[in-house]
Write a structure and sequence with these properties.
The structure is a single chain. The chain has 187 residues and is mainly beta. The chain has one helix and 28 strands. The protein has a nine-stranded parallel β-sheet with strand order 1-4-7-10-13-16-21-24-27. A nine-stranded parallel β-sheet has the order 2-5-8-11-14-17-22-25-28, with no helix packed on it. The protein has a five-stranded parallel β-sheet with strand order 3-6-9-12-15, with no helix packed on it. Strand 19 and strand 20 form a beta hairpin. The termini are far apart.
Length: 187
């Protein structure tokens, strides 16, 4: 057994990548005309809409609806009761339970915690970022970390290393960066 501590937000993505070391396909849901390649697990009552492309390793929970025309790339973990809209792209990310990701979103190297509502055309940028945690600075290649029950407006761009606290609302057409505390309202 491999044991890995989760100390920093970006450790979630790293641990998820290790957890994806499974083989085979498990298809419990309904798959329309989708292209599914590699090791992919799809939970019961999940619907994969037409022209969706999924390249494993990927796990998708129960009662989800993905697509149509969505792209899910390797090392992505999707929880239960998740909706991922048309023309969305997700790669190397962890999407927790009860998340709604509206059409046209681009999410890479990121974590979206449970109960978040993501409006159309949300973009997480992934690159090297310097993140201050306590008195320590960490330079890592990362995307964005979004806490529980956040509401992200349409056409929002989040810069690499952005950490959005729980219960935060971000208005449409914003560029967000840095650490945004819990219960914030960015208008």
């Amino acid at each position: 057994n491999l044991w890995m501590d989760i100390v920093y937000p970006w450790d979630i993505v790293r641990v998820n990548d290790f957890a994806m070391k499974f083989s085979g396909k498990k298809m419990a849901g309904k798959i329309e005309q989708a292209n599914i390649i590699g090791d992919v697990s799809i939970g019961k009552n999940t619907i994969i809409r037409g022209n969706t492309y999924i390249k494993g390793p990927v796990t998708i929970g129960e009662n989800c609806e993905i697509g149509p025309n969505a792209v899910i790339m390797p090392s992505t973990s999707v929880g239960d009761n998740v909706r991922i809209g048309v023309f969305s792209y997700i790669e190397n990310s962890v999407i927790a339970d009860n998340v709604v990701i509206a059409p046209g979103s681009f999410i890479k190297d990121s974590v979206i915690d449970r109960g978040c509502i993501i409006r159309p055309k949300f973009t997480t940028l992934s690159d090297f970022a310097e993140i201050k945690i306590g008195d320590e600075y960490h330079r890592i290649k990362t995307g964005v970390f979004i806490g529980e029950s956040c509401n992200i407006g349409a056409n929002v761009v989040a810069e690499p290393g952005t950490i959005i606290g729980n219960n935060t609302t971000v208005s449409s057409l914003k560029i967000v960066r840095g650490v945004i505390p819990d219960n914030s309202n960015l208008v």
